[in-house]
């Protein structure tokens, strides 16, 4: 499989767009017996209140078109049992929404998550394998392969390809990640240039008074920008706002140096 992964990585590199690389991953997954692909990414797994974040990127292949609306706009992503487990592990896992089949997501299947179960059953997306990808800065992705229907042999088939699928998912994510742009990293938050500037100086430990001298604005104006940024980031204070902005890569590339 290592030689095959090497060849797949080369095919990823030959594709110049994110969607083309996703298509390439889907082709490889189908050879493993999967019939649909779900790929999501978010710069931060949870917001400051501890709720699961809605992904900045959700890409689907051979999946009902309304899933994007339900998972992102209607926030099913927050209550998805697969996502709740994926946030707690870095190990690929098999899942099944058949109530008579015990899998690792069973403990997350409650009345709260019933809308997710109902949607997936309605669309015959009962079983699959998910690979969590946890990155050093805290950003997070999952690569999921789905088999339609509740065929009992799928668990056996999925477990046989679990390691290979996990490796494929990691190689694919690396290839996809290098094509991400600011619209992916910063999709959930929009800061003004002045807000980014004030946060960047705050990240160096400067007070509002010190920042006001550097940017030649009044202290109340600096405080206003910092408070506005904190509000947009859902942060309770300035320190939390800096951490949140850093996690979301909002301060990368800023020209504001001491």
Instruction: Please outline the major beta sheet.
Output: 5 strands, antiparallel
Overall morphology = elongated
- Category from helices, strands and their pairing: alpha+beta
The value of Rg in angstroms is 21 Å
Low-confidence segments: none
Kindly estimate the percentage of residues that lie in beta strands according to DSSP. Answer: 5-15%
Average the pLDDT over all residues and give the rounded result: 90
Structurally, the number of domains stands at: 2
What does this protein structure show overall?
It is a single chain. The chain has 258 residues and is α+β, with helices and mostly antiparallel strands. It has two domains: 2-183, Transcription factor LuxR-like, autoinducer-binding domain (Beta-Lactamase); 191-247, Winged helix-like DNA-binding domain superfamily/Winged helix DNA-binding domain (Arc Repressor Mutant, subunit A), CATH 1.10.10. It is built from eleven helices and five strands; from the N terminus they run ααββααβαββαααααα. Strands 2-1-5-4-3 form a five-stranded antiparallel β-sheet. A hairpin with a 5-residue loop joins strand 4 and strand 5 (140-147). The chain is elongated, with a radius of gyration of 21 Å. It comes from Shinella pollutisoli. Keywords: DNA-binding, Transcription, Transcription regulation. InterPro entries: Sig_transdc_resp-reg_C-effctor, TF_LuxR_autoind-bd_dom, TF_LuxR_autoind-bd_dom_sf, Tscrpt_reg_LuxR_C, WH-like_DNA-bd_sf.
């Amino acid at each position: 499989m290592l030689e095959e992964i090497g060849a797949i990585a080369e095919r990823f590199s030959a594709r110049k767009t994110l969607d083309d690389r996703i298509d390439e991953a889907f082709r490889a997954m189908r050879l493993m017996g999967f019939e649909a692909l779900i790929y999501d990414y978010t710069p931060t797994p949870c917001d400051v209140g501890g709720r699961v974040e809605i992904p900045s990127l959700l890409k689907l292949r051979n999946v009902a078109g309304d899933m994007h609306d339900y998972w992102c706009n209607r926030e099913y992503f927050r209550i998805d049992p697969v996502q709740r487990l994926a946030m707690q592990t870095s190990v690929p896992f098999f899942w099944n929404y058949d109530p008579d089949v015990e899998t690792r997501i069973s403990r997350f299947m409650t009345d709260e998550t019933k809308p997710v179960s109902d949607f997936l059953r309605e669309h015959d997306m009962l079983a699959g394998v998910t690979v969590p990808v946890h990155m050093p800065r805290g950003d997070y992705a999952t690569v999921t392969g789905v088999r339609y229907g509740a065929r009992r042999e799928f668990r056996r088939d999925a477990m046989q390809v679990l390691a290979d699928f996990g490796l494929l998912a990691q190689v694919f994510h690396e290839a996809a990640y290098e094509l991400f742009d600011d619209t992916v990293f910063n999709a959930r938050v929009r800061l003004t240039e002045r807000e980014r500037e004030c946060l960047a100086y705050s990240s160096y430990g400067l007070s509002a008074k010190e920042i006001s001298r550097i940017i030649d604005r009044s202290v109340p104006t600096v405080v206003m920008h910092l408070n506005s940024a904190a509000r947009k980031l859902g942060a309770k204070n300035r320190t939390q706002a800096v951490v949140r902005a850093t996690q979301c890569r909002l301060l990368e590339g800023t020209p504001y140096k001491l």
